[in-house]
Amino acid sequence: MALEYRNLMEDIVLQNLETVMAAEGGCSCDACKSDVAAYALNHLGPHYVATRQGRLMVKLKSYELQSRADVVAAISEAAVMVARHPRHGRE
Ligand SMILES: [Zn+2]
Predict the structure, then answer these.
(1) Would you say residue 91 has pLDDT above 60?
(2) For every residue of 24-91, which 3-state class applies, written as one string?
(3) What is the pLDDT of residue 79?
(4) Which of 77, 88, 89 is nearest to 31 (CA)?
């Protein structure tokens, strides 16, 4: 059996990334999305679970309910920062 573990925080950030970035109105190219995701993930810290595929979705759902407000806040903060200082300069 292979080792099975996953950072649920990564799934939850990705699920909310586009909506929150759109609400902040900044650039949404892949470079900016990557920067926002990385910043938010560093800020939030990981939430690893060791589980098999079948049980993963159950854990993901319940953890998302608990953490969604924090995740949205961290993405918003990251989106504002990246919009002010995009890696590719402003157009
Ligand atoms: Zn961009």
Answers:
(1) no
(2) HCCCCCHHHHHHHHHHHHHHHCCCEEECCHHHHHHHHHHHHHHHHHHHHHHHHHHHHHHHHCCCCCCC
(3) 97
(4) 88
pLDDT (tens digit per residue) in 18-77: 999 999 998 999 999 999 999 999 999 999 999 887 788 888 898 999 999 999 999 999
- Ligand 1 center–CA 83 separation, angstroms: 8
* Alpha carbon of 90 to ligand 1 centroid (Å): 8
Distance CA 75, CA 79 (A): 6
Tell me, in angstroms, the distance from the centre of ligand 1 to residue 59's CA: 33
Residue 52 tokens read as 């098999």
